[in-house]
Amino acid sequence: KAGVTQTPRYLIKTRGQQVTLSCSPISGHRSVSWYQQTPGQGLQFLFEYFSETQRNKGNFPGRFSGRQFSNSRSEMNVSTLELGDSALYLCASSYNDRVYGYTFGSGTRLTVV
Amino acid sequence: AQKITQTQPGMFVQEKEAVTLDCTYDTSDQSYGLFWYKQPSSGEMIFLIYQGSYDEQNATEGRYSLNFQKARKSANLVISASQLGDSAMYFCAMPRRGISGSARQLTFGSGTQLTVLP
User: Fold this and answer.
1) How big is the CA angle at B89 (ends A54 and B65), to the nearest 5 degrees?
2) What is the pLDDT of residue B99?
3) Which of A85, A112, B87, B93 could form a disulfide with B106 if both were Cys (CB 3.0 to 4.6 A apart)?
4) Strands A31-38 and A87-94
């Protein structure tokens, strides 16, 4: 069975631009969560979507947003990119709305120059 | 509030030897759990093992075992018979409950970079 697919794997953007990252969960999984991983802050929770609704949100500015489609695929968007947004963005999917069945993708590595 | 502490930024171990990665936690929840994940250089977080706070026996999954000491609030990962492929970052994590009371996100420690030497 296919795993969690994140696209693109690598991305280079210029400060001030916006970016959209995609996450396709495991078939049948209805929950998608996003995490940001940086050397300075470590792994931090961004938000979680379940059945197209945002159910939980971390402490990130409004420049970070997301959505989930009816097929459970999720996108996250970062507007007005800053150098500090350079990070590995990981998504995790699970069947229900719990962390116990998390399967992570390989991440999208975003570099802001 | 929760906090996960991993005090070993880097560890070295000889191939075929056992290694213990430390994790201490702080939580006000009566019922909680601890996860360990492995992150190779490819970036993917791979689930290794889970321990619930009310589990009577320490969790074991193949070469991985969890040395869970509730009174000391520690949940150390023991890897037996290390292999070269075990070289990776290892993270300890704890579920954090949302407003609804369900565990909707993970709080991670800062990680330990394990290098297995041939």
Assistant:
1) 95
2) 65
3) B93
4) antiparallel
Rounded to the nearest angstrom, the minimum Cα separation between A105 and chain B is 6
pLDDT at B101: 65
DSSP secondary-structure letter at A101? G
**pLDDT, tens only, A46-85:** 999 999 999 889 999 999 999 999 999 999 999 999 999 9
Q: How far is A45 from chain B (nearest CA, A)?
A: 7
Rounded mean pLDDT, B57-70: 94
Q: What are the beta bridge partners of residue B36?
A: B49, B92
Chain A hits for B49, Cβ within 8 Å: none
> Which of B28, B64, B59 lies closest to B46, judged by CA?
B64
The answer to whether A89 and A47 are in contact (CB under 8 A) is no
Bridge partner list, A94? A31
**Cα(A84)–Cα(A57) distance, rounded to whole angstroms?**
19
